[in-house]
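May I ask you to comment on the folded chain given beneath this request?
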Amino acid sequence: MTLGLYCHVPFCASPCDFCSFYQEAPTKSDLARFLEGVELEIRAAPETWPIATLFWGGGTPGLLPARQLVQLGKLFKDNFEFAKLEWTVELSPSTVKMDKIDALLRLGVNRFSLGVQSFQEATLRQLGRRQNVNQIERAIRILRTAGCRNLNLDLIFANPGQTLSGWQRDLDRAVGLEPQHLSTYCLTFEDDTALFARSLQGDVSPLSSDDQAGFYEFTWDYLKAHGYQQYEISNFARPGYECRHNLNTWSQQEWLGFGPSAASQFEGRRYTNIASLETWLSDLRRDASPKKDVQWLTPQILAADSLIFGLRLNSGVNLRLLRQRFPTVSLEPLQPLWRAWESAGLAFVNSEGFLIPTRRGRLLSDRLAVEILQHFDETAHDFPSSNVRQACPTDA
């Protein structure tokens, strides 16, 4: 079993219109309180085996000054045993400063994920991003100069009014910067976001499903032609640079989350910390648990989720390993479903026993997920998404 750690840094100078992750505008005292809470939470963490991945997300971890980034990093290094660690830190371009990057590299951070979203000023404004293209390019220069050798760029497509030619310009700029990894997400109109409120007012509206599908397929073909291997619906990498942290989560391994709103899956339970810095810290100070929405995981739940998330991967699901891992779960009732998928051109079982989605099947992954759940005698499958960047984007 592989174990990962996730730390949610819940601070943003200004929330983007599309973002639904928990975040607050930082104050000096809030930064100190956050670090206090993480230290308390780490001290209360269970004994674990060596850690394979560590991911700092947000929010904007880069809002912490270099001194506090080092403090946060040492909390993890001093309390956990790392084994060939992949250590990712998410950054907003406007927060990338040389002293911060130097501090993170000295700590052992070896992967950076930059929230670019677009290389076009009008699109950035439309998304509510508080950055400009010059800041993006400057941030990448700083990262490369400092010694970053594993860089992911996040991009968003299917923005209202966006054309494929406009999206290609973004991809051209991104590929030209030679990142090792690219994450390309379809814009979603999440509840409780400014974008959703604007859609209710009629200011913006999502593209049609057919148009979204066109963006997905264009992206897949374009990045393949430029040497990026697709390994998940929204993720592409040069050989050997796949994100191990997200692969660990998609394969239903185990991870521990720290910080307000961070999710965990550990020792048969799935839970999420309360999404409030104040309440989270108050609970920790009085030795109370900040966990909420605790779900006990049955083999059926884990098997179903392994299938659902495995079908988002180009490699599919190794059914032989799935049977070995969950011997009490019978997959035989699913055989008619898989035959129906094969007839419909959605998925197939190859000679090595892998259930593999087709191109069309990846476009309809939400439909496949619903049909899988209908075949399991479980109703609660609330998968905590705050540890994975947009783990389930709206299906095309």
